[in-house]
Every structure is written in C-alpha cells, then in structure tokens.
Amino acid sequence: MRVCPRMSVCRFEDLRVWQAAKRQCDRVGELIKRPEFRDDQELSHQMNRAAISVMLNISEGFLRRRDNETAQFLRYSFASNGELKAGYYAADGRKYVTAAEAVELIELNESIAKMLRRWQATLKTREPTTKRR
Fold first, then answer.
1. Is 3 in contact with 62 (CB distance < 8 Å)?
2. What is the pLDDT of residues 56-100, one digit of tens each?
3. What are the E-state strand segments in 14-64?
4. How far apart are CA 38 and CA 32, in angstroms?
5. 93-100 LR contacts (CB < 8 Å, sep 24+)
6. What is the predicted pLDDT for the residue at 131?
7. From its phi and psi, is residue 96 left (phi > 0), alpha (psi between -120 and 50) or beta?
8. 3 Cβ contact partners less than 8 Å away, ≥ 6 residues apart
9. How far apart are CA 126 and CA 60, in angstroms?
10. 85 and 106 in contact (C-beta within 8 Å)?
11. For the chain, N or C: smaller number of CB within 10 Å?
C-alpha cells in the first residue's frame, strides 16, 4: 500500500474495500460466462452492472475528497452491492451456482457492505436541513 504524506491512502486501488469489490466484480465476470447465465441475459446483465457499479462508485467516492460527496457515492455503492447480493440469491435459487459458491459470494458481498458502512461512519457529513413549521 502506498502512503501519501497527508492521508493514509493515495490511490483508490489501495483501498481494501475497492480491492474486495474488484474481486467480486471479477467473480461475477467469471459467472456470467457460464451457459446458464448466458441464457438468462436479464439476470446476468443486471448482476454485471451492479458489480461494476460497486467498484466504480467506490473509486469515484474516494476521488471526490469531500465527505458529503464521498458519502453519496458510498451510498450508491452500498445499494448496488445489495442489489448484487439479491442477484446471488436468484442465481442460487435457479441453480446457476452451487450452494458453496453462493455462500462464498454472499460472504464477500457482506464483507464489502461492512467496509462501506465503516468508511461512511468516518465521514463528517452535514445532515439535510428540514424546515420546521
């Protein structure tokens, strides 16, 4: 891991959460090459888009360098990660993956969700103001 003088991480590629999201994206890329996924284009395309979205939004959030903006992109990433988790359940239910693969994929997905939540908790964000009557 590279260390920057003013911050602990210089590049988004050095983030453990981004590295895990890339592993997850790579795994989805392997899955959708299977014949059963190729035949179910709706599910495979949706899972592929969600996996890519997790990775891309983590990197964009990191690069924003403003806590409110970073938090927004982490929320997008968290939501896409949840969407992908639902895709794993669908793939498991349709027997496109083995039970062991489903467990492994869901564990990786949940670890990413935890890392995203921990990162979000470190951000100093302003809560939206609401008008009181």
1. no
2. 999 999 998 899 999 999 999 999 999 999 999 999 999 999 999
3. none
4. 6
5. 94/36, 94/40, 94/43, 95/36, 96/31, 96/34, 96/36, 96/37, 96/40, 96/43, 97/31
6. 59
7. alpha
8. 9, 10
9. 20
10. yes
11. C
Residue type, 100: A
Model pLDDT for residues 103-118, shown as the tens digit of each residue: 999 999 999 999 999 9
When the pLDDT of each residue in the chain is averaged and rounded to a whole number, the result is 92
Q: What is the DSSP letter of 1?
A: -
pLDDT at 1 over 80: no
Residues 6+ apart with CB under 8 A from 36: 94, 95, 96
Q: And the tokens for 11?
A: 């590049």
- Whether residue 32 has pLDDT greater than 90: yes
Place of tokens 């969600």: 50
Question: Which residue type is seen at 112?
Answer: I
